[in-house]
Design brief:
heterodimer; A: about 450 residues; mainly alpha; two-stranded antiparallel ribbon; globular; B: about 120 residues; alpha+beta; 4 helices
């Protein structure tokens, strides 16, 4: 690992941030410096998603992948977005009134301690990631070989992409990894782990940016640190796999949807759409989790206009997956679905309870997600008492629908044993798609619980 | 607080562990539990032309073989040796416990560790 290689990776992630700032500006208006600092994490994840999506399209129409294609795409997105932001004007009028509890000087203290804690955490994670070998079997078996094939051969090499295990998996992660190789100027599978460190930092930045002005620091920072130290995040957050990448996109989109319920600002819904499209482009189950999230949102909103908007959003997310499906079809790669069939799994009713029990064990077993999922029902009850019944319904609906969906996956593959062994059943990885968005919701559910509540105007 | 301290310690311990590995072990990572003798892949990688290769496994004895050696050696070799391609008809062969005589009459041995791992060239 050399400084040059790390520098290359940092430049790539800076490019994502710059491109995403353009995207966010085009949706929301020209940002102030404070906006840039606050919403930089959201911009970064938007940049990752939009650049990867465009690079996929370029490769599908035959434009070779390389350093130049990623740089030009990123700069083009940044420029077009920047011009659109200037035309749109300042975003300074995007404010709303919020009920924020006052904890006095404790708030500043909590924010300072929380921020310092995260800095220490990320420093330790960085040291761990920068020398990590590729120990994950799936990463060695197909994710990284796909990335190497893109890097070495400049496209979706037919031989590799049709013969590797997981041939039908969406291409966002291999392209992210291939872009990392291109910027590192080497297929360095050790330093590659730092790409996942950047995603982890971007995710925390996004959540803090969206919630910091709406949730009291005494609530926000302890919950963020609790999430950071859950066993799954510590053990798997830096693995060169697609699961956490998918979960981050889903969780930030979920928070944006929750904020859209309150504020009705178009940029929140559009940004959620982009990130959900990203989730569907990372893994096949991304589309399933997007459907679960939007179904929960429809249940909670129960408004005709919202139902229509959310249905259109799901259709739009599905449409973004079509180019890759066309490529699979053209190259005779079967888009592998459940072995029992999508409806045939209902003939596997004998597996229904064991599958559900397995999911409940993973979600509520302290071994994987600590006490986070246990806090959700309590926080939902607190949210109802503090006048946020719709948000509580949204979150609880997602918990229930998500658990059913994870159980259906185990049910739909009869050959999959009922076990938490990662090599045999993906339930632990899959559960992140349910628990990580819930963890992002927790601060919103628990805000405004102090007896000293003030109404203040905050930017959105 | 306990969870935070434990998480940071875990990252620290992992960083120390990875730093203690040599460059080869770090590059091989999961391959250490698949390929019994790393040299067999280095020999293929160092062949002058970017030639395709195949992996042939057999029931012969392989020193330090693991449960994954025969089932996953081709996956790991494909990952590790890219941009070389894995091709079932390639003349360059990574032989793990295989019988060279079963590959044809014109088999040239490029390298062997005399412990079950060899690199062969099969003539056509």
């Amino acid at each position: 690992v050399t400084v040059d290689v790390i520098f290359g990776l940092a430049v790539l992630n800076l490019l994502f941030l710059v491109a995403g700032t353009g995207v966010l500006g085009s949706l929301r208006g020209r940002p102030s410096v404070a906006d840039l600092l606050r919403l930089g994490g959201v911009a970064y994840l938007l940049g990752v998603t939009v650049v990867l999506f465009l690079v996929v399209l370029e490769m599908l129409v035959g434009i070779p992948f390389g350093l130049a294609s990623v740089v030009v795409t990123g700069l083009l997105v940044a420029t077009v977005g920047g011009v659109a932001a200037v035309v749109r004007g300042d975003a300074a009028d995007a404010t709303c009134t919020r009920r924020i509890a006052s904890w006095g000087g404790f708030s500043v203290f909590a924010a300072a301690v929380g921020l310092a804690g995260l800095v220490v955490y990320f420093e330790a994670a960085f040291r761990s990631a920068r020398l990590a070998g590729l120990f994950e079997y799936d990463a060695m078996s197909f994710w990284v070989p796909k990335a190497k094939a893109i890097y070495f051969f400049g496209g979706f090499d037919r031989q590799f992409f049709t013969s590797l295990p997981g041939a039908s998996y969406p291409p966002f992660l291999p392209i992210l990894e291939a872009a990392s190789f291109a910027f590192m100027r080497a297929a360095d599978t050790v330093t590659l782990h730092l790409a996942f460190w950047f995603l982890l930092v971007g995710f925390f930045w996004a959540i803090v940016g969206l919630l910091a002005l709406r949730v009291e620091p005494m609530v926000l920072w302890p919950l963020l640190l609790l999430f950071a130290v859950t066993p799954v995040v510590v053990d798997r957050g830096l693995q060169a796999l697609a699961d956490m990448f998918l979960d981050y996109l889903l969780a930030v989109a979920a928070v944006l949807l929750a904020l859209w319920f309150e504020d009705r600002h178009g940029w929140q819904l559009t940004s959620a759409f982009i990130l959900l499209a990203g989730a569907a482009g990372v893994k096949r189950e991304g589309l399933l989790l997007v459907l679960c999230l939007l179904a929960a949102a429809v249940l909670a909103m129960r408004r005709r206009t919202s139902t229509i908007s959310l249905t259109v959003l799901f259709v739009a997310v599905f449409v973004t997956t079509i180019p890759w499906r066309i490529w699979l079809d053209e190259h005779s790669v079967a888009a592998k679905g459940p072995s029992a069939g999508y409806l045939g799994s209902f003939g596997q009713l004998a597996r229904a309870w064991p599958s559900l029990h397995l999911t409940l064990t993973v979600v509520f077993g302290l071994h994987w997600w600590s006490i986070l999922p246990w806090l959700v029902p309590l926080a939902a009850a607190a949210a109802i008492l503090s006048g946020q019944p719709r948000l509580a319904l949204f979150v609880v609906s997602y918990l229930v629908i998500g658990i059913v969906a994870c159980s259906w996956v185990t049910m739909a593959f009869p050959e999959m044993p009922i076990t938490t062994n990662d090599a045999l059943n993906p339930i632990v990885r899959l559960s992140g798609g349910v628990v990580i968005p819930l963890a992002a919701f927790l601060p919103l559910l628990l805000r405004g619980q102090s007896s000293h509540v003030a109404e203040v105007v905050v930017p959105v | 607080m306990v969870g935070f301290s434990s998480a940071v310690s875990k990252f620290g311990a992992r960083a120390t562990g990875y730093a203690a590995l040599n460059r080869d072990d770090r590059a091989f990572a999961v391959g250490n539990s698949i390929i019994p003798d790393k040299q067999v892949l280095y020999e293929v990688r160092d062949q002058p032309r970017p030639e395709a290769f195949r992996v042939v496994t057999g029931p012969g004895p392989i020193t330090d073989a693991t449960a994954l050696t025969r089932s996953s050696a081709d996956d790991f070799a494909r990952y590790f040796l890219m941009p070389r391609r894995l091709d079932p008809r390639a003349s360059l062969v990574i032989c793990l416990g295989c019988a060279p005589s079963a590959l044809g009459s014109r088999v040239h041995r490029l390298w062997t560790d005399h412990a079950g791992s060899s690199v062969l060239v099969v003539g056509r």
